[in-house]
Specification:
The complex is a heterodimer of chains A (98) and B (380). With 98 residues, chain A is of the alpha+beta class. Chain A has 2 helices and 5 strands. Chain B is built from 17 helices and 11 strands. The chains are: A alpha+beta (98), B alpha/beta (380). Chains A and B meet through strand 5, helix 1 and helix 2 of A and helix 2, helix 5, helix 6, helix 7 and helix 9 of B.
């Protein structure tokens, strides 16, 4: 999906940050982001890479969409895509027969 | 058998209902002022379509405004020969890792899921870094079947520049969005009067990338975010430009997108990839629309490392249903899912015929899930 997911940086170790996504912590690579990133910052994550450091004044508005979706029912298509990004799991689409 | 009803939508969940109402009223006024019926605009992003359908936005659009999803689903436009290459590599004994949505997309006759069922080693990964890890842990060749637009291609590029192990290589089916907008704008059947560009892809490329397109085609482009209010606000800006006959690029998502974009990401992308012409499934040959590895990365290019024999997949005759699939027309904005005789009847998420029903970013899959034109009266 082309929708990045925002998370809060907990720690930075070289080119890899530990990022908290609504309680799920996982590594996010920093090779692509074009600003220095420090613990406490929020970054927009896409397939395991930070693509943007979110300016502090824009964090609340950025989080709103995701919080609406994460409150949605389990079967919701868009919410499932966002949950897959949050979990950082290779989400196989098991709806089909194979 | 009738097509099933999509799930009932809840009433609109706007964070600021008054602002949403004002934006919806502005869309109505602008559509009337333009005076042509219908006014058609296109977005090129599966996440935009998910948000439009998920939040029932079309219920607040004026009847004469058509917001069409173009070729914005990366899984859907990955071409048949590209899937064949991945299937042939997997059947040839190479471990293939890819994104989950790619598994069930058929090539000429088979999908990676079919190959897996026959014993081929196919792994679903969340991203390229997991595929690299897989290669590090194993004493065998691992090919990452890399799909997606420039936002995702940047991740593949970064992984290759970070020095993956020698048993890791990439089969690139990455695509580049700006050139396909030109193709869609030039299609004789296209009635599109403006484009809504996807915010997160523009985070990488910057909004300046659309300026040459606007100059050539005299069509406005507005970069928009994914929140329901972001989308409505983006559409209002786009219709204002259409009404004024003013072809320009407007950034309606300044909290994420700048004119220059992420220069570091662009440098990584073009260091590893070069644009080449190639087919997009169902659309056309798109000049400069495919991203292939540069010669400096030949050692990590699966096409050069392996002899990919896809010809043996061609003897399986394509299923008769595939000939009726209208995925291409739908992605070009010429047809809607409901115009396809297979939609919801013989083509469903459980038994998809076309790639547009396979991917969670495909127009048919999204409309099957939420409906394109919601009946909000039934919502609870």
């Amino acid at each position: 999906m082309c929708l990045g997911v925002p998370g809060r940086v907990v720690a930075v170790d070289g080119d890899v940050a530990t990022v908290d996504f609504w309680g799920v912590r996982r590594p996010v690579r920093l090779d692509v982001v074009d600003e220095a990133v420090a613990p406490g910052d929020y970054v927009l994550n896409h397939v395991g890479f930070a693509i943007r450091r979110i300016p502090p004044q824009e964090i609340a508005e950025t989080l709103a969409l995701y919080e609406t979706l994460l409150a949605a029912a389990d079967g919701d298509l868009m919410a499932a895509d966002v949950r897959g990004e949050v979990a950082g799991a290779g989400r196989r689409d098991d709806r089909g027969r194979s | 058998m009738d097509a099933p009803e999509p799930r009932a939508l809840r009433p609109l969940e706007f964070r600021d209902p008054a602002r949403a109402r004002a934006l919806a009223e502005a869309l109505g006024r602008l559509t009337r002022a333009i005076g042509r019926a219908p006014v058609a605009v296109m977005h090129v992003c599966g996440s935009h379509e998910q948000a439009i359908a998920r939040f029932g936005l079309r219920a607040s659009f004026p009847r004469d405004l058509e917001v069409i999803m173009g070729p914005g689903c990366p899984v859907c436009i990955t071409d048949v020969p590209e899937v064949d290459e991945a299937v042939a590599l997997a059947l040839g004994g190479v471990r293939v890792a890819t994104y989950g949505d790619m598994l069930r997309v058929r090539g000429t006759s088979r999908s990676l899921a079919d190959a897996q069922a026959d014993g081929a080693r196919v792994d679903v990964v969340y991203g390229v870094a997991q595929a690299v890890e897989l290669a590090r842990r194993r004493d065998e060749e691992v090919v990452f079947f890399a799909t997606g637009f420039e936002t995702t291609a940047v991740a593949t590029a970064a992984a290759l520049l970070a020095g993956p192990p020698p048993n890791f290589s990439v089969l690139s089916a990455h695509k580049y969005i700006p050139p396909v907008m030109e193709i869609v704008a030039e299609m004789p059947a296209t009635r599109v009067e403006g484009f809504l560009a996807a915010g997160h892809a523009a985070t990488i490329t910057g909004w300046g990338i659309f300026e040459p397109f606007v100059a050539r085609h005299r069509l406005p482009v507005v970069v928009a975010g994914f929140e329901p209010l972001d989308i409505l606000a983006g559409l209002v800006r786009l219709l204002e430009l259409v009404r004024d006959g003013r072809p320009a690029v407007v950034n309606a998502y300044p909290r994420c997108v700048t004119r220059e974009g992420n220069r570091r990401a662009q440098a990584l992308l073009w260091k590893v990839f070069r644009p080449v012409g190639g087919r997009w499934r169902g659309i056309a040959h798109v000049p400069n629309g495919n991203l292939r590895l540069r010669d400096a990365f030949a050692h990590a290019d699966a096409r050069r490392r392996f002899r990919v024999d896809a010809a043996r997949l061609w003897d399986g005759a394509p299923a008769a249903l595939v000939a009726e699939c209208r995925c291409g027309d739908i992605m070009a904005g010429i047809a809607r899912p409901a115009d396809c005789a297979l939609f919801g009847r013989r083509c469903t998420p459980e038994e998809p015929v076309g790639a547009c029903m396979v991917s969670t970013e495909g127009t048919c899959r999204i409309w099957h899930e939420y409906g394109g034109h919601p009946q909000l009266g039934a919502a609870s």
